[in-house]
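Reopening this one. Same input as before:
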Amino acid sequence: MRKKLVETLIEKGIQDKAVLEAIGKVPRHLFMDSGFIDHAYVDKAFPIAANQTISQPYTVARQTELLQVKKGDKVLEIGTGSGYQAAVLLELGTILYTIERQNELFKKTNIFLPKIGYRPKKMIFGDGYKGLPDEAPFDGIIVTAGAPFVPKPLLAQLKIGGRLVIPVGEDVQIMTVFERKSEKEFNKEEFGEFRFVPLLEDKN
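Same output, byte for byte:
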């Protein structure tokens, strides 16, 4: 079933062999309620706890491909969610820091990911809009929820040459990539429409 999913992603235009290999290794069925087990390797998003979703495999593959990470890269993920995207990034050999805003999901994933052999460097319960200044700079930052605007702290926490992959927009998001060229200069590219759950901000 995983092999079939990888074939579907190739048909949809995913080309990065390392990303395809990582998706082929991650047991997506373990990230879903047992009632959805038949759907685990279908290219669709599905509901999980706290009114969130496990992203469509194509979306995970596309964001990961756009991030252009290599083994040993220091990556910040905003929105741990089910942990599926985190597992894909860990399969690629990244040093992963991941932040989750929903306490229910944070508690669950904090136990679950290490249990199935995926160990992020740090898992944080907190506000993704602020990033993780104490651990910056990062080679890559990936945002797995729809952001109404681009949080400035995330751009500030990129290394020169680092990339931020973020879906920007309210109802429909445009997948946007920022590459840091210098202290003050960023290249921006857009890669089509996607739909994500909203990125939550701590208003306190």
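So the earlier flakiness isn't reproducible anymore. For the record, The beta strands are 46-47, 53-54, 74-78, 95-100, 122-125, 138-143, 158-168, 173-180, 186-194.
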